[in-house]
Amino acid sequence: MENRASSLEKRFSFLLENREKKSKLRRLTGLGAGMVDFSSNSYLSLSDQPTIRKNYLSLLETYGTTSLQAKSLSLIGSGGSRLLDGNSDFAETLEYTIAEFHGGPAALLFNSGFDANVGLFSSVPQPGDIIVYDELIHASVHDGMRLSRATEKVGFRHNSVFESLEDQTSSTKSLDAVLEHLTSGGAREDVLLGKRNVFVAIEGIYSMDGDTSPLKDIFTCVEARLPRGNGYIIIDEAHSTGVLGDQGRGLVCELGLEDKIFARVHTFGKAMGCSGAAVISSQTTRLYLINYARSLIYTTAMPFLSLASIRIAYEFLSRGYAESLLGHLKELVDYTFQSLLALCANSDTGILRVEKRRSWSPIIPIFTTEPRSLAKYCQEQGFMVRPIVAPTVPLGTERVRVCLHVANTTYQIDGLLEAIKHWVQENSGTFSHASHDERRNLCSLDVKPKL
């Protein structure tokens, strides 16, 4: 047994060494003392809000010493899965509150956004159904699709709805082109006739690029190509929850498409400042997930501590307290983006670039062929940014990702920009340069983010 374990671990060591040689080895790191956070997804910095902390502790004290004891429930643990001993009136009331806030018929809590996506995509598509997904969809959706009974899984070019010249030379096609192929007759006729369902998987804001999904165009395309009503859009609103829409209700609510989208995944570990997730759907779909979503059925339910934090975050948003925070965040995003554009345009080396913005989201990728070097330099100067490399992003699109938060200041942003500027100056003759045309196309002082 010892030799077998040793042989296995030798294999592990070989694979890890291989990954390290390719600069792809992952390690667990944290935010060092005194580091300025430009990396986490806590966009609204809700955990720093005195109102949030006060209300959370008050709820734990009042509810935890009365209601929980009366019902023999634990403050810290839940006791089991939702279908056994882990359910509570508090959890079900919270689900009703979440559904109402997002304008949906029903909500079902999951322990994480990953669990929600795996549960949805592994159980909802039936044999013969098809999943069409944005090529940059989150890894959790891919894992759900692997477990799915869907007959086909087809990717489409990121955020590309209708065919363009760029799509014609790409290995992946637009959503419209994919759906046209799937309804082109012959063996595909059953899709056109509505006998097979097509699920379209997208995100609200994409975590690596910070761009917003063209949801209205996607809905129009799905309706036109699948007129029998067998096209179902599932949107992961992980990074748009708390950021887009009135009071942070998300992209679907911002566009008034609440009754047009089959399912929404709202996660609470980003702007909401807590943990967990909820699927917004019909009552029938909710009950179906309770019966078939294995990531819900076979896991211990969230404890009261987690449920309470979610409730307090939703109360904060629903009372309009986050509106001023969102306004400030947008100002920080605009300031940072314009400053990065100027830095990029004034850098003749082409070591780094930023793309034209199509949304105001707090995620700004800085593309560079040397993301690890840039990130390390910024970290040494006290600014926590992370290098994002393949396979997390496609080869050739490596970047350092800047995530902005309400708690950031313009002083901190100026410090980060100064560090980036110094890194460019120190490495201008070291790394390979982008072409003049590439820099001109991707760095333009005339472009402003849409606020």
From TrEMBL:
GO terms for molecular function: pyridoxal phosphate binding; transaminase activity. Residues 35-420 form the Aminotransferase class I/classII large domain. Keywords: Aminotransferase, Pyridoxal phosphate, Transferase. The keyword Translocase does not apply. The keyword Transferase applies. SUPFAM superfamilies: PLP-dependent transferases. Signal peptide: none annotated. Transmembrane segments: none annotated. Its cofactor is pyridoxal 5'-phosphate. GO terms for biological process: biotin biosynthetic process. Belongs to the class-II pyridoxal-phosphate-dependent aminotransferase family. BioF subfamily. PANTHER family: 8-AMINO-7-OXONONANOATE SYNTHASE, CLASS II AMINOTRANSFERASE/8-AMINO-7-OXONONANOATE SYNTHASE. This is Aminotransferase.
